[in-house]
Specification:
This protein has helices at 10-30, 33-41, 48-56, 65-74, 80-88, 93-105, 112-120, 125-133, 174-190, and strands at 136-139, 143-146, 152-155, 158-161. The chain has 206 residues and is mainly alpha-helical. The chain has a domain at 135-206. Strand 2 and strand 3 form a beta hairpin. It starts with 9 loop residues before the first helix and ends in a 16-residue tail after the last helix.
């Protein structure tokens, strides 16, 4: 009496399925097809191999492609290489592009290189653009100063600041402005013969 042995083909099928899943995951990891397709649908010409190259250069494509799409839709002329260079230099690509778009809407002349320089200098270029349109009011902390008659006065000041984009790099920041105003208050009070000379109701230049 002969016996017939049957081998199940389920194990090889599972192995093949696992291999296919691993290959698909590796493909999407190496080729960011989702970003490439989003750029393609937005009319931004991006080579898929450029995105792969970013992986090897340790550049996160998700930090480059969405800002590139925003810039393209806003009519801002900026290249992928420029954004990638900014990213590799430690800049905030998204904020720089947002600043360019905001400046364009407010009809403020702002070039990419200028915006890049401001960002890499550690300044918030987007906030600067907003401040150039809507001035910001800065309030100093309470500052104590003694007049020549020995009376101590405590004062605070409110300063309206409008950003000058062309002079932002190397210009005074908020902390510097507060410090300079504080120095002015101390100098004004300290040089007064009487504390009454600097009481409210009189105008003083600090």
């Amino acid at each position: 009496m002969s016996s017939v042995m049957y081998y199940s083909s389920s194990i090889p099928s599972i192995a093949v399925a696992i291999v296919i899943v691993v290959l698909v995951i590796a493909l999407f990891s190496l080729f960011p097809l989702g970003l490439w397709f989003s750029a393609l649908m937005s009319g931004v010409p991006i080579n898929i191999f450029n995105l792969v190259g970013m992986k090897f250069r340790r550049v996160n494509p998700r930090r480059i492609v969405p800002p590139m799409i925003k810039a393209h839709k806003a009519g801002i002329k900026v290249s992928m290489n420029e954004l990638e260079t900014l990213y590799m230099a430690g800049g905030n690509v998204d904020r720089v592009v947002d600043a360019l778009i905001a400046a364009q809407s407010a009809q403020i002349p702002l070039a990419f290189d200028q915006s890049k320089a401001i960002d890499l200098a550690g300044r918030n270029v987007l906030e600067a653009v907003k401040m150039s349109v809507n001035p910001k009011v800065i309030e100093t902390p309470v500052i104590a100063a003694i007049a020549k008659d020995g009376i101590e006065l405590r004062a605070k000041a409110r300063v309206t600041v409008r950003a000058n984009i062309s002079r932002l790099v190397g210009g005074a920041g908020e902390e510097t402005i507060i410090a300079r105003v504080g120095e002015g208050i101390v100098t004004t009070v300290g040089s007064s013969e009487s504390h009454k000379d600097v009481l409210p109701g009189r105008r003083h230049r600090v």
